[in-house]
UniProtKB/TrEMBL annotation:
Record text on subunit structure and interactions: Homodimer.
Listed Gene3D superfamilies: Leucine Dehydrogenase, chain A, domain 1 (3.40.50.10860), NAD(P)-binding Rossmann-like Domain (3.40.50.720)
Identification of the protein by name: Bifunctional protein FolD
CDD domains to which the protein is assigned, alphabetical: NAD_bind_m-THF_DH_Cyclohyd
Residues binding NADP(+), per UniProt: 166-168
Span of domain Tetrahydrofolate dehydrogenase/cyclohydrolase NAD(P)-binding: 140-277
Domain Tetrahydrofolate dehydrogenase/cyclohydrolase catalytic: 6-121
Example of a GO cellular component annotation carried by this entry: cytosol
Listed pathway(s): One-carbon metabolism; tetrahydrofolate interconversion
GO molecular function: methenyltetrahydrofolate cyclohydrolase activity; methylenetetrahydrofolate dehydrogenase (NADP+) activity
The entry's keywords: Amino-acid biosynthesis, Histidine biosynthesis, Hydrolase, Methionine biosynthesis, Multifunctional enzyme, NADP, One-carbon metabolism, Oxidoreductase, Purine biosynthesis
Reaction catalysis annotation: (6R)-5,10-methenyltetrahydrofolate + H2O = (6R)-10-formyltetrahydrofolate + H(+); (6R)-5,10-methylene-5,6,7,8-tetrahydrofolate + NADP(+) = (6R)-5,10-methenyltetrahydrofolate + NADPH
Species of provenance: Gordonia soli NBRC 108243
Length: 282
């Protein structure tokens, strides 16, 4: 079996086109473009690259971006103060704190400073609770992108067994909650899981979000399964051993070009959502 690749780049382009039309309508209605503010703490090269990429995609899709860069020596109080300032600014529709932040900044405290209305990355506890309950919210970008990708390939999660490897607050945990709300049966695997290969072998849909290159071996994959690899590591490696997994899976995301493009596309779409909601409540 040779798996079909799930093309996140193509789907992201479609979402960007839809977002651009909506952003232009917001701009026409209120006289200024939707705005995403990014907060970058420190000088990590990968984080800086991600922020520049998001700013470029914003510009291409009718959304303004505002960058706030703070030194790595910043305290939690200094970072939260910067976020509060953006949150109080009526010209800012969405706020993204680039993670991870340097130690000893309390990342959770910084996230909780963002108001629910402007939490376009879906990182606050209020957003996580809303995702668990299936109530309206800005859904976490990578998990929401994964579900859009599955839907575009007609993978209906209802009744399927979804195995999530990883339980981070921004990826593993919310993608499992969103899958549960779609009526999947969800198993979370993590560093304390016993017999990981057996757990993975039971998955109709495997979502790899563990952050370790090629931890998941291809021979562990159930024949005909759907494999979503949310990892990205130097050399273009994911969390899954792609070549051998593709011999068993029915559908698989490439790395790069699978989950990554969808994350940014959803982020910008969420920002325009926030701008639209602001128009309604104004």
């Amino acid at each position: 079996m040779n798996a079909q690749l799930m093309d996140g780049t193509r789907l992201a382009q479609q979402l960007h086109a839809e977002t651009r039309r909506r952003a232009d309508a917001v701009t026409l209605n209120r006289g200024h473009r939707p705005c995403l503010a990014t907060v970058l703490v420190g000088d990590d090269p990968a984080s800086a690259t991600y922020v520049r990429m998001k700013q470029r995609r914003c510009a291409e899709n009718g959304v303004d971006s505002r960058a706030v860069t703070l030194p790595a020596s910043s305290t939690t109080a200094e970072v939260t103060a910067a976020v509060r300032s953006l949150d109080a600014d009526p010209m800012v529709d969405g706020i993204l704190v680039q993670h991870p932040v340097p130690v000893p900044v309390d990342e959770r405290a910084v996230f909780e400073t963002i108001s629910h209305a402007k939490d376009v990355d879906g990182v606050t506890s209020a957003s996580l609770a809303a995702m668990a309950l299936g109530t309206p919210t800005h859904r976490s970008c990578t998990p929401a992108g994964i579900l859009r990708l599955l839907d575009s390939y007609a993978v209906a999660l209802s009744g399927l067994h979804v195995v999530v490897v990883g339980r981070s607050e921004i990826l593993g945990l919310p993608v499992g909650l969103l899958s549960l709300c779609a009526d999947a049966t969800v198993t979370y695997c993590h560093s304390h899981t016993q017999d990981l290969p057996t757990q993975i072998g039971r998955a109709d849909v495997l979502i790899a979000a563990v952050g370790r290159p090629q931890l998941i071996r291809g021979e562990w994959i159930r024949a005909g399964a759907v494999v979503v690899d949310a990892g990205y590591h130097p050399g273009g490696l994911g969390d899954v051993e792609t070549a051998t997994a593709a011999e068993r899976a029915r559908l698989i995301t490439p790395v790069p070009g699978g989950v990554g493009p969808m994350t940014i596309a959803v982020l910008i779409s969420n920002t325009v959502d926030a701008a639209e909601r602001g128009l309604v409540s104004a």
